[in-house]
Amino acid sequence: MSGRVLVGVKRVIDYAVKIRVKPDNSGVVTDGVKHSMNPFCEIAVEEAVKLKEKKLIKEVVAVSCGPQQSQETIRTALAMGADRGIHVEVSGKDYEALGPLQVSKILAALAKKEEAQLVILGKQAIDDDCNQTGQMTAALLDWPQGTFASEVSLEGDKVKVVREIDGGLETIKINTPAVLTADLRLNTPRYATLPNIMKAKKKKVVNMKPADLGVDVATRLEVLRVDEPPQRQAGVKVETVEDLVGKLKETGRI
Amino acid sequence: MAAICRLARINGLASSICSWHRLTLNKSSQSRGIASCIDPSHGLTDEQKEFQKVAFDFAANEMSPHMAEWDQKEIFPVETMRKAAQLGFGGIYVQPDVGGSGLSRLDTSIIFEALSTGCVSTTAYMSIHNMCAWMIDTFGNNEQREKFCPDLCLMEKFASYCLTEPGSGSDAASLLTSAQQKGDHYILNGSKAFISGGGDTDLYVVMCRTGGKGPKGISCLVVEKGTPGLTFGKKEKKVGWNSQPTRAVIFEDCAVPVTNRLGEEGQGFSIAMKGLNGGRINIASCSLGAAHASVQLARDHLLVRKQFGETLSNNQFLQFKLAEMATKLVASRLLVREAATALQEDRSDAVPLCSMAKLFATDQCFHICNQALQMHGGYGYLKDYAVQQFVRDIRVHQILEGTNEVMRMIISRSLLTEA
Question: Which residues of B lie inside 8 Å of A (Cβ-Cβ)?
Fold first, then answer.
């Protein structure tokens, strides 16, 4: 096994920013807004770095698909302990239309090219909440997938994954190579240390285009309109339980 | 970096973020990325932005939630500071060969400014600790550097800077603590006042008189806690800076090895002043952080609080006031960063520029925080709201590390003694 782990990191609007819809309802305002690494991607990077520290894998490669600024996100991954980075440059209209299907095609191509043993991703991005890229990547590669992972352990050429599912926790054992997606409780990402940030400067980040991987990023989706969620309506106070039941029946809730 | 607390909010997101913000005004102050005209990451290199990000994250996750408790219970947060030291914040501008991070003064300013948004008092102590570590790193010989710096950089040991005495504050060169050489020891007698960390820290960088009167008779000694003859006064009760203890440091026939002297005899005052140039930038940076946090708190409050049928943010007087606060903040920040660059490059204007930066930034930032408190109305006066702690904590920045009056002395001297 190559001992190489590919980690996908996405540059998203920072979680603390108040999102604003563009006046033409075509999307969300991103210009001049603070961006950072998707929190679930941070957890994915942390897991990969932990595996390397336990000497279970040899190399962590951070990948990001996006415009020039995605390199900042790769640098953060390098500062956390990734060994090198790959920036797949997608900008302009292509970037606005970039979604899980195209990204998973890119990741699948890279996973084959890099002979990755594992591909670790965040379970979903906090901007689109798709929760699709991991699963699609596994399908394109015909690899097993361990999604919503809250615990990962390598056992020889298999991976034991404890998954957070609606009913509780499910433990599965899958062959490698495999795709894993990180859930909230998998780990607590480390702070980058000042020395690691400086070391990250010297780590290599390779630039490429989707076409170099033979991937067509044309989208099959068209966003028609983006709106804010409806304003919260005022509630109604009722005096008795009968009133409450009556109101619920009235609005068709029961 | 503790994605857990952030993601738990996103994952459990049902009710509006707005009400959450209103209920927990103390913690929500770490909203980042809004109000981009005062964004402190403008003009920084990518690497500096990374340093700043780590510092902001650390401040938001490890310091801000505890800021009020540390203040009210007067807790010296040793474990949190050690966590910070693990990231490299214990000796930011100390050389890497003895465990430091080897960064520039500007990098340091950016880091302290960000950390200060989490807790001014703790960050200010960390800056004093950093200053002491730098003094040993720069003026110590190799034995001293190797003996003291690694522990300081990891904050295994903490340091205090001892210059001020009951009888000599602004007139620092008139200090009286004497160090008489007897064999291979100096015997120290005297006392130091208002020492940050005093009694709880392990290493004391002490300016004392080995020679005649005036600055040329002063030397710098490193005194270790536990040395017989080293005792401490009572813990002072302060208006702010409560997460660090302040005590008098008393020497009664305290024997300190001559090998603990930094530099030459008579060099102590110069070492002390060189330490303070950097210290002044650091303290000014702490004021910047507090002002930045306060402007954000004020802004958030104006958008939420309604009177006379509309939010305060529609009131032109308050809009103008906020604009003035933002302008003063950015102006202060620019001056502090310029001074940091000048000091790093050892420019001829570095010393007066550091004094200007300290004078201007600490004064302006206090006004900013004070105005932010005023904008909160009655709520600003309650300890449930963070803004009053920023005001109380940075008030002392106009006094220590050289009063703002002494800053004026330094600047005017630089102007009037030029040929």
Answer: 1-4, 6-8, 10-11, 16-17, 30-34, 36, 39, 46-47, 49-51, 53-54, 57-58, 86-89, 92, 96, 101, 103
